[in-house]
Each structure stands twice: as C-alpha cells, then as structure tokens.
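User: Structure please.
Assistant: Input sequence and predicted structure:
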Amino acid sequence: MSAAFLIPAILLTPLIGAVLIALTGRWPNVREAITLTTAASLFALVTQMIAPIMDRQSLALTLAEPLPGLSIAFNIEPLGLMFALLASLLWFVTSVYAIGYMRGNREPRQTSFYVFFAIAICGAMGVAMAGNLLTLFISYEVLTISTWPLVTHNRNAKAQAGGRVYIGVLLFSSIGLLLPAIIWTWTAAGTLEFTPGGILEGNISTGAAGLLLGLFVLGVGKAAVMPMHRWLPAAMVAPTPVSALLHAVAVVKAGVFTITKVVIYIFGVDFLATVPLEKYLVYLAGFTVVAASVIALKQVEIKRMLAYSTIGQLSYVVMAALVLAPFSEIGAAIHIVAHAFGKITLFFCAGAIYIASKKTRVDELRGIGLRMPITMAAFTVGALSMIGVPPTAGFVSKWYIIAGAFQVESYFTLVVLMLSTGLNAAYFLPIVFRAFLTPETETPRINHGEAPWPMVAALATTALLVFAFFAFNGPLVDLETRILEVAP
C-alpha cells in the first residue's frame, strides 16, 4: 500500500468508527461490534507498515502547509511504527475488556465512552506518525482534549475535580512550555522536521540547548516528570478502561514517545552529549523514579498505587533516553512496550477485582487469589514485569537500560534502578502474598468469582503478552536499533 492511501486510512479509521458508534448507540450489540471491528481494522492497517519500514522504504505524506515552511506532514520511522502497533493492538484488547466492564458495572453514557475512546486513538496515531513537531503538537492536543470527557465520565463532583486537574496540567504544560519550545526550535533551526541526527547542532549554543531541552521535558506533561505529574493520579477517578487507556495504550506513552523522539530526532544524541544542563534532567528523571515509587509504597487505593507506579516507570524511559548511550536509547524505546503490557494487565486486574467484589483497597485483597485465581495470577505476572524479573517483558527493557548506563558509566542511573527495583518489590509482592497465602478476614460484599469473561480474556491475553515479549523481542530490538542511525 502507498503512503497516500495508508496514512489517511489509519487516521480516518478510528474517526469513521466513532461516527458509526454514535449512530448505533441505541443498539449496544451493534455498537460494540463496530468498536471491535474498527479496532481490528486499524491494527490490520498499521501492520501494513511493517514490511516497507523493515525494507527501509519511505512512508511519508504531506497533507497541508498552513504556514510557509510549516506543514502538517506524516513520516513513519521505527519508533513511530512501534508506538502505532502498540496503541492499535491494545485498543482492540481494551475494547474487549471495556465491554465486560461497562456492562458489568452498568455504566451510563457507554456510547459516548466508545466514541471518545476512538477519537483518542486517532490522536495517538497522529502522534505516532507525525513527521514534524507541528503535526505532533496538533495530534498531542487532540489526544488531551478527547480524553478529558473520558476522565470525567462519571460526572460527579470527584470526577469533575479530577478532570480539572487533568486538563489544567496538560494544557498548561503543552501551551505554556511545549509550544514555546517548538517555536524556539523553529526560529533556531528553520525547520521542525524529525531528522536522524537532529536539527539543532550548529544552530543553537549548548547553554541555550539545555534550557530548550528543559522546556521539552517539562512541557510534555504526559510524560509525568515531576512536578508535572499531578494529572495522572487525579485521573484515577475515571472508569478502569480509561485508566488502561491513560497508562498503557495512548496518553502516557505519547508523552515518553515524544521525549524520546525529541532527544533523537531534534537534538541528536551526539549534540546533546555536549549540553551541560542535560545531566541535571537525568537527575530530575531519576528523582521522579524514586520519589514516585516511595509514594506508591504508601498508597492504600489500588489504582492510586498503580498511578504512582506509572509515574516512576515513565521516568525510566525519560532517564534512559537522556543517558545518551546506544543501549539506553534502545531500552527507552522497548520499555514503552514492556511497561504497556505489564501495566495494562495490572489495571485490567484492578478493574476485574472491582467489578467482581467492589474491592478497591490493597488491604482488602486477603485471600482473593482463591476466589479469582486467573485475575490474581495475571496480576502477579504484571507485578513481576514492573519489578523486572525474568521471564517478563520488564526484564528485557531494564537489561538494555542497565547496559546503557554501563556504556557511559552513569552510576547514578544504576543506583536509581536498584532503588526502584527494591521499592517496586516492596509494594507489589505483599499484594501477591496477601492474595494467595493469607485467609480472607472479611465476608465478601458479594459472592463473587471471576469478573465477566471478556475482562478475564483481556487480562489473560495481556499477561501472556508479557511473557511473549520476553521470548520474542528480537525483531523489535533490531528495528529500534535503527533509530540511532544518522543520515549520511
């Protein structure tokens, strides 16, 4: 397929699906069949990009040029292909899960939920395929705005308050910091195109480049580097499928994807290594990893614990990208996938526990593994991946990040990884122990077993993906090594 067909088809498929979902809202079975068909169709279209990218063919398309020299353009490269594959695959799995959750919990406004979910995926596809910073910024904002109704889905006071924090932090960071960073890049380099090796070397001093990098790191609020992290725990008021969207499918991955892409294709690894301020941003990312893990250790609500865990795991990616070693850049890229599989499993399990038992707190999980063995087995898999234990996906990405730290002798990074590994084990393993090896101390609120089968099928699938990525990550690693290639 040509880029002229494939790129518009990928962007339009979720939008067409959103329209059809809205038109069939009165017939739930038809509406959900359209949701699943649209998600499957999108994944099938995205897979059509694999062969040409592996063959080093160009897939690029310019749609418009609203300002002289500034275009809305798309250009697929290995990092973007990985993100698009991840988001489209997990959209389908999350849709299966959402059907069980939304029906099992008798959620209101289910049609609008699926509509905005589809629009958000369109935004994620735009981020993945963006050929320049302008296109990425537009898609990034589409993703922000389309997910706000999902965060406020319940429309109660708590949801509205969480929604205000969500939209406030993300819009402030993007308009107040990211947009000025993009404009500064344009004035300095005369272009916003993503270019192997970067576009800023020779066009900006190293001191100014450090300030510009700081604007990007903090301006990409979706990456949740402290202090731009508050939106993420605030958004936990949303239904669990939305939490899965935020933490694994689209939003946070768009954030760390953007920072990784800026490091490699706007600054360039070689130029950024000469920027003095860059190392302080490594320290900020490392602080976020440890601080978020400590906060997660103190949480009693399952979803809030997972939210702070996500903040720490995201900064793994940011820190790895800023370490500027070849292995760490690969580790940053593949941790996006590894974290997605593990964390979506954990959120799926949290939602299944809620639907089946109405339990939301860590201290309520005693003996629940005997009632919900599949769910808690999947939770264990996700937890081990977050810790980085083989044979899980989290071990693979952590291996590359550690190797990269050794390449450049970044002992700070090694210490951060050791501390966070211990902290992750400290808040995940007691849950597993409590679920399987301690008796129930309270009568269940309902006589529950497992959650509805679509939810169990989805969480079992993502748990298997955690193992599959450990065993079959070679092709993706080979593909992502090409993000470090510099055009001659």
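Residues 157-189 form the longest helix (33 residues).
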